[in-house]
Amino acid sequence: MNYNIIEKDNKITIENIKDFEPKHVFECGQAFRWYMEEDGSYTTIHHGRVLNVKKEREDLILSNTNGSEFQNIWYNYFDLDTDYGEIKRELSKDPILEEAIKFGEGIRILNQEPFETIISFIISANNQIPRIKKSIELISQNYGKPIDIYNGKEYFSFPNAEILANIDEKELEEKNKVGYRAKYIVSTAKMINEKEIDIHQIPNLSTKEAKEILMKLPGVGPKVSDCVLLFAFNKNDAFPVDVWVKRVMEYFYLKKDTKLKDISTYSYEKFGDLAGFAQQYLFYYAREKGIGRKK
DNA sequence: GTCCAGGCTTTCC
DNA sequence: GGAAAGCCTGGA
Predict the structure, then answer these.
(1) Does residue A119 surpass a pLDDT of 90?
(2) What does pTM read for this prediction?
(3) Distance, Å, A113 CA → C4 C1'
(4) Nearest nt to A241, CA vs C1'?
(5) CATH number for the domain including A20?
(6) pLDDT at residue A45, as a whole number
(7) Closest nucleotide (CA of A174 to C1')?
(8) Which nucleotides of chain B does any protein CB come within 7 A of?
């Protein structure tokens, strides 16, 4: 993909960017460490860097960074090499997705850090987004490293597997509001730290093989593994089925009380290698519109 | 082997 | 008081 880039004063401006709407990208539930500022911009910490993102008319402004960081970190993180226009044209052949895409037209799927993503989605199980965000922030403050201060707020890295593997379960539970998931987090960190599960091998595996490996981690089931594959390993055929996707799929495509596995199978057959993108448009549409929710 | 009920921390609506 | 980007365990 070609972009017009301007570098100036610790900022990168991408002129006339297509298919990138900060609200859609950062509030569609794929990432939990984007914080909205008073001016409507968003700040995150990723790969040991703090970055602020703002859309001004058709331009995207990345602040607190430079050209080499943009090339080495942010270009891949924001999935800027992928042509979302082409993906949207293909998926819009389905009238329901056409509607969902109109609603979340600026969604992109980020390429996030594997370990942080695994732990984040273990925390997400049977949980709510505000509390998930709070737990991840607490874990970072308690066990991560201070990285930078931006706009008066201090940012901490997410701790690595070695650090989390050596924390007492009770302490993790009490200090970070993760509840009964504490034992899953510590056990998973141990298995990864001791290379009992080698997550570095996952990019070389098929989506199915990778999923079987990830599901050996405690606290990682079918849904969490799909999220990790889609959001951290660029496996774009993964289709996480959570309560909202179950509702929206049953509402528009299938009958009530369809089994989760049958929803996955149907979705992969329908959307193929674009299933993960379809999932993200549908999830955002369903949650924002409250599709199928009880009143 | 598959399927299902019940339990799980705590917050949010 | 029910639900929340579910998973684990035990039993049929």
Answers:
(1) yes
(2) 0.97
(3) 25
(4) C5
(5) 3.30.310.260
(6) 97
(7) B9
(8) 3-4, 8-13
